[in-house]
Amino acid sequence: MPVGSRLNDKNAGQKSHLLSCRKPGIAVIIRETVLIPAPMEIVWDVFSRVENWSEWNPVCRQCRLEAGDCLAAGSCLSFELKPLLFPIRIAPVVIDYEKGRLVTWVGAKWGVQARHSFYFEPSGDYVRIESIEIFSGPMLPVARFFGIPRRLHKLTRHLLAAIQATAETRASGVGLRQAPE
């Protein structure tokens, strides 16, 4: 289903959801959306060049490719997140990749499995990015007890805001409009 058919942006181009299933421990879904007034080429370049993430990305620290020469299906990223007081290094593997459209990676840490998808959709002078993270596993109730899903949701908002700010800065000379409210 196209990203635009699922979304209704009201907050300056952003929409946010933290959804959890009714049965504890089954899954937590984090959905976040941003509308960026920049060309797809710029937005995709910002996101897809993992080697440049340290220049603009405040969420994923010490980013690098562990396997593969570029972001693509089968490549493995490595970065640190800090959802608690201490950083956590994760190394997800890209399982789905369509240039300019979709990136999905999966990983696991301490009994929690994660699947993170980014959907890119051009819409006129804008690009809509939808981020969907799905967490499951036997340790998910413990993670929920410590508030980790809410902290990860905050990190996702920061990541998308950083992509937006970087792409807007790069596109600023093009004369694009601000995102609709």
Q: How far apart lie the N and C ends?
A: 24 Å
Helix content: 10-25%
Strand order of the largest sheet: 1-2-9-8-7-6
Can you tell me the CATH superfamily?
A: START domain
Envelope shape: globular
Average pLDDT over all residues? 79
Order of helices and strands: EEHHEEEEEEEHH
The SS-based structural class is alpha+beta
Instruction: Work out the radius of gyration.
Output: 16 Å
Summarize the biggest pleated sheet: 6 strands, antiparallel
What is the subunit arrangement here?
single chain
Q: The CATH topology, please?
A: Alpha-D-Glucose-1,6-Bisphosphate, Chain A, domain 4
Describe the structure.
The chain has helices at residues 40-48, 53-56, 140-145, 148-171; strands at residues 14-20, 28-36, 61-67, 76-81, 88-90, 93-98, 102-109, 112-123, 126-136. The chain is α+β, with helices and mostly antiparallel strands and 181 residues long. The strands form two sheets. The chain has a six-stranded antiparallel sheet with strand order 1-2-9-8-7-6. A hairpin with a 3-residue loop joins strand 6 and strand 7. Helix 1 packs across helix 4 (148-171). The longest helix is centred in the C-terminal third of the chain and has 24 residues, at 148-171.
Write a brief structural summary:
The chain has four helices and nine strands; from the N terminus they run E-E-H-H-E-E-E-E-E-E-E-H-H. With 181 residues, the chain is α+β, with helices and mostly antiparallel strands. The strands form two sheets. The chain has a six-stranded antiparallel sheet with strand order 1-2-9-8-7-6.
